[in-house]
Each structure stands twice: as structure tokens, then as C-alpha cells.
Amino acid sequence: YHLALVGLFVLAVWSVVATAQTNEPVAAAATNMLEGSAPVLDSTTASPNSLSFGLDRVGFLRQRLLGQPAWKFVASLIYILLALYSSRLINWLVSGRLRKLAARTATRVDDVLIEIMHGPVKVVCFVVFLHVGLQLFDWPAWIQEYLSKALRLVVAWSVTYMIIRAVGILLAAWQTRLNKSGDRVLDDRLIPLFRKVITITIVTIAVLLTIDNLGIKITSLLAGLSVGGLALGLAAQDTVANLFGAVAIFMDKPFRIGDRITFEGVDGNVEEIGLRSTQIRNLDGHLITVPNKTVGNATITNISRRPNIKTVMALGLTYSTPPEKIREARTIVEKVFQGHAMTSDLIVAFNKFADFSLTLTVVHWWGGTDYRAYLDGMHELNIKVKEEFDAAGIDFAFPTQTLHLKQDSEWRLQPPPA
Questions:
Q1: Is the distance from CB of 349 to CB of 360 less than 8 angstroms?
Q2: What is the pTM of this model?
């Protein structure tokens, strides 16, 4: 790369010297310019405003090709190479210098902007240099028209490339931010989808605008695309609705894979979140597939997102229990439950005279969401409460019923006959 750049630089210097040594045609053209008249040059001679690299003095390059001397095409090729390597050199200098300056700052915005500029700067410089170089020669109208269209294509490609690159860098920054939060589902599904949709949209718009700038009428094409898009939208409206439902799920994140959720009679653990449907394994082990448009419009209860597990128990004591024993029962329950490490909060109160018991209500919050650990912990706590109640002589009530029989006349049971 560096050798080629040095070679092209030497060639440019040599062309300056060679052009300066050109005698009568160039001197006459310079005299005409000083006198205020336009320079008159034939097509085999380089103009005073251009660099022919001395190729116009090479005999076989003065031969005609497509109505123009062959040296013009060779010189134009050299200008293209000069524009290419000069743009790469400028891009290297600008990007390297700006990267050093951005490395001294604490913000990430300037780094992202430099990444966006790296590449587009090279393309823009290449287009500018190429345009200047090719305008140095007096090309016929039909060649200028083709050159103009070619430059428009290059500009359209460079702008499109810059926009796609900017979108890609911004999505990559978003992906890095999501990786830190541990949201792999959004990273693996939504970002690639966004990248494809945005890229296709940008390329489609760029192609249509480029075709229009080239002078090709696209009215009928747009009409056909509109009709086709309408027909496709009507045919695939359920698919599109499911796709937007998936986007809503990924953006709002009402649940993640592994969460237990309930909605519209479905209760289970989420196993898969796709672009069309969500798969849920219910408590009976059955796999339920729900369209994303249904999930996106449903009221979802995410059981796994609760910070703790709440339990409400009613301990029934017999009506023969004296007040002192009721107070002792409350003390026992508070001591047993508050002594456990997973108890985050507790309420114990004698709050109800039930049909057959004195009800001691216990509201307990388990400081975790692991359901198996919760069941094991409550098992041990309840056994401990039972042991403490038995030791204190406090009896649990069980459903009882007392029947009173009323008799209208006196009657007695007679002994059986002998």
C-alpha cells in the first residue's frame, strides 16, 4: 500500500514537470488565458488546468479510442488510483488522530461517532477527488453523462453504506448494554431482527431514490409495490400481528424464559419465546403454544417476579383455651417463625371467633422465590409450631357440632323386655 502510494506520488510530480516542459501548445494556451480568451486545445493535448502525466507525448497513446485519445483513459485511471489511495491516507490520518483524542475522554459517544466516520470519510474523499480528477479533461457529452451517473451511483452507495454502518454500530452498542444486563433473549432474537429489517428498508429506499435520480421513472414501480404490499399485508396480517407481539414482548419484557406466568387460564413456565409464538410448560407437564399477538394483549401475572412468597394460615384453638394460653400461642408462633433466616416479615393476631375455634391468623412472608425451598422451610416451621403447642398443652380445634334435642312431652327410655 505504501509503496503504491509513493509510486503514484512520484508519478504525479513527474507529470507536473512534464507538463511544465510542454512548449508551444501549452504556452499558447497560457497566453490566451492571460489575454482573457479561452484556451483552444485539441483533444491530443493536455489543458493547462490538468495533469496529463506526460502521457499526451507518448506516440501510441495519441491514437483514438471511442473518439478520444487513449492517453485520456490512462490518465483517468491514474486519477482513480490517486483518489483511492489519497482517500485511504486521509481516512487513516483523520481516524487515527481522532481516536487518540477520543481515548482521552470518558464518554462513549465520541468513540461511536468515530466508528461511524471510519469508512464513510474514505468514501466521501474518494468521490470528491475522483470528481475533481475526471473534470480536468474535456470529455464529450455522452461520456460526461455516463461519468455523472457513475458518480451518482458511488455517492448513493457511500451514503447508504454510511447509514447502514451507523445503524450497525448503534445496534452493537445497544447489544453491549443488554449483555451487561444479562438479557440474552433480547440480544439473540430482537437485535438481529431489527438489523435485518432496518437494512432491507434502507437499501430499498436507497435503490428507489437512486433510480429516480438517474432519470428513470419509478411511478409505475411504486404503484406496483404499493398494490403488492397491500395484498401481502392482508394475506399475512396474522403473521405481522404475531411479529409485532414478539417485539412488544421483547421490548416490555413482562417475562423471560424460565419465569412462571399465568394468563387467560394458562399457568406454567415459559420455555421458548419465538417470533411467532410463545411456548409454556404448564404444571401438568403439557406444552402450550400461544400466539404472540394473544400474549401481547393479555394481562399477565408473572409469579416468578414476586420478591417473596406470602402465606396466610388460620390456627384454630379450642374454645376452652384460656386467654393466657392464647397469648402464649401467639408468642410461640412469633418465636418459631421469626427465628428462621428466610422470614422477611410476620404478622400474628387473634382476630376471629369462628364456628368451632378461636382463630389465630398468621401472615408470613418467605424471603425468596424458590418454591421447593419454601415448601421445605414451611414444613419444618409447622412441625416446630406443633411441637411447641403440644409441649405447652395448647390444643388445636377441629370441626365439632353440638345438637340440642327438644321434646314436646315427657318420655323415658324403657328397658328391654326380659
A1: yes
A2: 0.49
